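go over both lines:
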Amino acid sequence: MKQFPVAVIIEKKQLDNRWVSEKWEVIGVVPAFDAPVDAPPRQIFADEQREQFLAGHFPLELFRDEVDNYHLNLTSPEPRVFVMWRMDEGFAKPMEASLSYGEAARWLDSGEQCDGVPMPPEIADWLGDFVNTHYKPAVRTKIKRNDPFAGKRRP
């Protein structure tokens, strides 16, 4: 399987703050194999303080050149799914999802909103299969210190 489709759960929380009245945050992802690709966000919970929405169908895709970042994510204490989102007419709209630390860092470096949420076990299993197949640890070479001829050819 080349892609793993997910839907994003995003929450709008009311704040008691004179400068900001609300806060948006991605709070989870769920598998979305049967969700239509162009599904509009729908409200799944509401009370006086918060609203939660299930948004879209986002394909998690895996790329071999990101395997080091996937490995870092999987071996972290709490593996994450990263979701990039943008405000659009008063609503936080998820745009993309990724399992790569590197991609999440690039989103943040470029000024995008990005939240990391716990990775569901079925996604971790899928990612683990990919990492086990493609990850090759970097070969470490020992550098001798204080050797003026290190790295130079001798006749």
